[in-house]
Amino acid sequence: MSSVGIVTPQAYRFTEALPLQSGASIADYTLMVETYGTLNADRSNAVLVCHALNASHHVAGYYADQPKNIGWWDNMVGPGKPLDTNKFFVIGINNLGSCFGSTGPMHINPATGKQYGADFPVVTVEDWVRAQARVADEMGITQFAAVMGGSLGGMQALAWSILFPERLRHCVVIASTPKLSTQNIAFNDVARQAILTDPDFHGGDFYAHKVVPKNGLRVARMIGHITYLSNDDMAEKFGRELKTGDYQFGYGVEFEIESYLRYQGDKFSDYFDANTYLLITKALDYFDPAREHGGDLSKALAVTKAQFLLASFTTDWRFSPERSREIVKALVDNRRTVSYAEIDAPHGHDAFLLDDARYLNFIAAYYNRIAQEFA
């Protein structure tokens, strides 16, 4: 197996307004896109990979001027990898409102000539999916072989199967959920409050003040990161190890876990946008396709036509296996073809990004079967 190598992102600009679920709309926006592999003659081998909270269109490979900037799912996508770019044409799209090149709060609002800041409209998973469909239209792709995602990306894949049932043959949902639990919404709100109450936030218009609400971003990332790991994984990696070997009887960094979380928070605050964090966590909170059907997920998924693959991880307490089983049951209620694996892995929610052989082999076997459809 090897890397897809050097990749170059492309900008897709759209002038036609995109109606949003909130009732607002956004026009004259750009979406950043990367592709890997070759689109076949009848355009039947395209796979859309949807990204999670702090990821982007940069799914695999690396940039010529940034060889260490490796795609966030590089172990999944590439020649000979589970999503094999010798067989599939893989597309990554940076979502609207993100901070990796697609139009977001830090960009200029053409209506005012100033940065959007707090005026950038709230977006939903469904809004992202409709924007992604426009990219597919531009590429001449009327139907994907598969739409795939993990975590928040899995929500987008599920939304694709509902909003555009004819436009995907397979839906791959990993470590995801049909809606956030109350506890998850609570974690998101605490993280947002850390940003909103940072004195440098300035109501979302911190760009004009030439500051960044770093303290809020650090705390938000630390809260999030705790939820991505399992208790056992944290205990094995860090335990109660002290940096200096003894208590310092103060409030600085003493335990190794504290040092790790602060490192993650500092790194995150250097590259991620605070307004984007607010937008994306709200999109997470709002996703609930069963809401319009009286809470009945089976009714919500009745319109689907795709075949499905779902995977969950035993120690993922943020998007637990029970939530994937809810999706499986609703699909079985509708007599859809479903493959499901519940993988015993110690790494918590982050397991979907890691190199677990059972997990990667399961995905590879599924994509090998899809490849036979257009071989």
From TrEMBL:
<keyword id="KW-0486">Methionine biosynthesis</keyword>
<comment type="function">
    <text>Transfers a succinyl group from succinyl-CoA to L-homoserine, forming succinyl-L-homoserine.</text>
</comment>
<dbReference type="InterPro" id="IPR029058">
    <property type="entry name" value="AB_hydrolase_fold"/>
</dbReference>
<feature type="active site">
    <location>
        <position position="349"/>
    </location>
</feature>
<keyword id="KW-0808">Transferase</keyword>
<comment type="similarity">
    <text>Belongs to the AB hydrolase superfamily. MetX family.</text>
</comment>
<dbReference type="InterPro" id="IPR000073">
    <property type="entry name" value="AB_hydrolase_1"/>
</dbReference>
<dbReference type="Pfam" id="PF00561">
    <property type="entry name" value="Abhydrolase_1"/>
</dbReference>
<dbReference type="InterPro" id="IPR008220">
    <property type="entry name" value="HAT_MetX-like"/>
</dbReference>
<protein>
    <recommendedName>
        <fullName>Homoserine O-succinyltransferase</fullName>
        <ecNumber>2.3.1.46</ecNumber>
    </recommendedName>
</protein>
<comment type="pathway">
    <text>Amino-acid biosynthesis; L-methionine biosynthesis via de novo pathway; O-succinyl-L-homoserine from L-homoserine: step 1/1.</text>
</comment>
<feature type="binding site">
    <location>
        <position position="221"/>
    </location>
    <ligand>
        <name>substrate</name>
    </ligand>
</feature>
<keyword id="KW-0012">Acyltransferase</keyword>
<keyword id="KW-0028">Amino-acid biosynthesis</keyword>
<feature type="active site">
    <location>
        <position position="316"/>
    </location>
</feature>
<feature type="active site" description="Nucleophile">
    <location>
        <position position="151"/>
    </location>
</feature>
<comment type="subunit">
    <text>Homodimer.</text>
</comment>
<feature type="domain" description="AB hydrolase-1">
    <location>
        <begin position="45"/>
        <end position="354"/>
    </location>
</feature>
<feature type="binding site">
    <location>
        <position position="350"/>
    </location>
    <ligand>
        <name>substrate</name>
    </ligand>
</feature>
<keyword id="KW-0963">Cytoplasm</keyword>
<feature type="site" description="Important for acyl-CoA specificity">
    <location>
        <position position="318"/>
    </location>
</feature>
